[in-house]
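TA notes, week 10

Several of you asked for a full example with nothing omitted. So below is the full record: structure tokens for the whole chain, then the designed sequence directly under it. When grading your own attempts, check the secondary structure regions first.
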């Protein structure tokens, strides 16, 4: 094992993923270099140049980093994507952090933290962003009033919709619609 490979394993460096895999003599599993599991002692590590080589040596894939699924982005990214899909599907519903967290079987604080780490935004910001994007489409493609648009995208009042839209887009819905129609 080179010093660079050892440093990649110790630092959980994802730039080495796909270049090599490492197995643990003690646990009989193999991981990506970026795996966040506890790093085994250097003397207990075996290196592999392919997934097949690790499996042939009797090692099983780590359940934390899933080295046998090359397109897997990680459990945190997967959780953030699942939360985003729920919001995209149900953007007209009232935002409920406890509801989303329970559907994903995680603590609401953990969900908030992971979503912010992965996207740079809060779940509520994302919910409002989706609603505002839908509102823009409706304002361009229909003759609905702003109140009707607000109701259609899930706001209970046009004043709240106007406040959120202005905060998110930096312009009032009325002015946005006027500029979009020119």
């Amino acid at each position: 094992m080179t010093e660079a490979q050892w440093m990649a394993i110790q630092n959980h460096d994802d730039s080495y993923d796909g270049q090599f895999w490492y197995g643990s003599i003690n646990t009989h599993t193999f991981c990506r270099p970026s795996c966040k599991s506890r790093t085994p002692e250097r003397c207990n590590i075996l290196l592999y140049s392919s997934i097949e080589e690790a499996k042939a040596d009797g090692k099983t894939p780590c359940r934390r980093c899933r080295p046998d699924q090359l397109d897997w982005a990680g459990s945190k990214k997967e959780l953030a994507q699942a939360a985003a899909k729920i919001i995209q599907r149900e953007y007209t519903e009232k935002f409920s952090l406890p509801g989303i967290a329970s559907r994903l079987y995680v603590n609401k604080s953990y969900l908030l933290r992971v979503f912010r780490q992965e996207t740079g935004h809060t779940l509520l910001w994302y919910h409002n962003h989706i609603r505002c994007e839908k509102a823009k489409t409706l304002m361009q493609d229909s003759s609905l009033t702003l109140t009707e648009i607000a109701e259609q995208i899930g706001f209970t009042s046009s004043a709240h919709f106007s406040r959120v839209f202005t905060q998110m887009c930096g312009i009032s819905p009325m002015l946005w619609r006027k500029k979009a129609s020119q």
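Residues 73-182 form a domain with the Arc Repressor Mutant, subunit A fold (CATH 1.10.10.60). Use that as a sanity check on your answer.
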